[in-house]
Structure formats: C-alpha cells, structure tokens
Recover the amino acids of this structure.
C-alpha cells in the first residue's frame, strides 16, 4: 500500500535511507524538514505494517519546475513494480501542482534507476561531473515533460479501463491545479 508519509515515519525512512544510500544518506534533520515542508509531498510503501520504501517530490506552489528528491525501496522489495508505482505517484502529484517539468539527478553508476526514469519518459539534459562524493561519481540530470507524461498515462489507463479511484491519477484530484 502506498500512502502519504508523516513525521511518525521518520525513523523508518531514515533506516531505509541509510541502507539505500550508505555513503551519502541525508541527515535526519534534513529528512524531517522534507517531511514537514508544504512545498513537497512524500509517500511511503507499507507492507504488513512495515515501511519498505519511500519517495519525495519538491514542487513549490506556483512554480514551473519540480524535483524528484529521492526514491528508495529496501533491497528485498525491489524489482516488483513498487519503485515505478512510487514514481508515478510523485509525477501525478507534480501534474496536480501544475508543474510543467520535473527534474532529477541520478548516479552514473545506477543503471536500474536510470532505466526506470527513461521508461517513464525522462531524458538526459545534463551531467554534473563528480557530483556524488566521496564516491567521485557523476550525476546525470534528467527531465520530464509532465503534460506529455500525463497524456501517455491517461491513454494507457483508457486502453486498460482500470477501476475508478485506483492508481496515481486519483492522487491528482482535488489538488490546486485548475
Ligand atoms: C531504483 C528503485 C527505486 C527502482 O524500484 P524497483 O521497485 O526496484 O523497480 P521496479 O520493479 O518498479 O522496476 C521499474 C523499472 O526499473 C528497471 N529495473 C528494475 N529492476 C531492474 C534490474 N534488476 N535491472 C535492470 N533494470 C531494472 C526496469 O526498467 C524496470 O522496468 P520493467 O520492470 O518494466 O523492466 C530501487 O531499485 C531502489 O530502491 N534502488 C536503490 C535506491 C536508488 O538507487 N534510488 C534511486 C536514486 S536516483
């Protein structure tokens, strides 16, 4: 189940953060600020009452751009579609906030995440040499046209005729984009 993150999830998110990003994990105060910020939205994946993943978007109200801040699953939960589901929740939220373009940075040595992003329509728009320290790894900067992503998602949904109220499209309802 994917649901909104709360401050009560902070400890569990930090445990996942340290496991997924051992050399450059965010600090707990940084993550706390992310969870509290009105300029973003965080989701968690819960299984049998336990958190196994989380992801966050930063997209200040009225802004044109947004950023995928982070996304991670515990290793045992990977490869089962939950990373894509989390990413789609973030992108639906970006669409609801009228964001035109979403950016992210991904390590050059992370082909799994790159494949996920490319398959949702992200394209490489730049590189930041040696961005990740202390590992000395380049960052690939990617961006996504949110309207195009949403159009493709709606086409797919229409073709599959899913039950109403399921999936990320529902997340967008009632948000402030008019
Ligand atoms: C990146 C991450 C969030 C992806 O989540 P996931 O649940 O494992 O991925 P999914 O099962 O949703 O798969 C989505 C796509 O990712 C790619 N992918 C997933 N596992 C893969 C693997 N073992 N090898 C290659 N590509 C893979 C594929 O493109 C896949 O699409 P497909 O199933 O249609 O082929 C997850 O692997 C993770 O937490 N990794 C560690 C933290 C991290 O690197 N975060 C990203 C920081 S930028």
């Amino acid at each position: 189940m994917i649901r909104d993150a709360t401050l009560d999830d902070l400890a569990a998110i930090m445990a996942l953060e340290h496991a997924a990003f051992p050399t450059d994990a965010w600090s707990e105060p940084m993550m706390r600020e992310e969870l509290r910020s009105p300029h973003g939205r965080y989701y968690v994946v819960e299984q049998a009452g336990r958190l196994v993943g989380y992801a966050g978007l930063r997209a200040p109200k009225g802004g044109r751009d947004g950023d995928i801040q982070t996304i991670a699953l515990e290793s045992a939960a990977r490869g089962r579609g939950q990373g894509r589901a989390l990413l789609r929740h973030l992108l639906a939220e970006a669409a609801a906030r009228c964001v035109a373009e979403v950016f992210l940075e991904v390590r050059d040595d992370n082909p799994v995440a790159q494949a996920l992003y490319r398959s949702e329509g992200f394209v490489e728009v730049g590189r930041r040499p040696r961005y990740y320290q202390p590992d000395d790894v380049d960052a690939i900067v990617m961006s996504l046209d949110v309207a195009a992503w949403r159009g493709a998602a709606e086409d797919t949904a229409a073709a599959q005729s899913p039950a109403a109220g399921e999936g990320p499209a529902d997340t967008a309802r009632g948000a402030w984009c008019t």
Q: What stands out?
A: The beta strands are 2-4, 40-47, 50-58, 65-73, 101-107, 123-132, 137-145. The pocket of coenzyme A is lined by residues 20, 71-73, 78-84, 106, 110, 112-113, 115-116, 119 (CB under 6 Å). Residues 82-96 form the longest helix (15 residues).
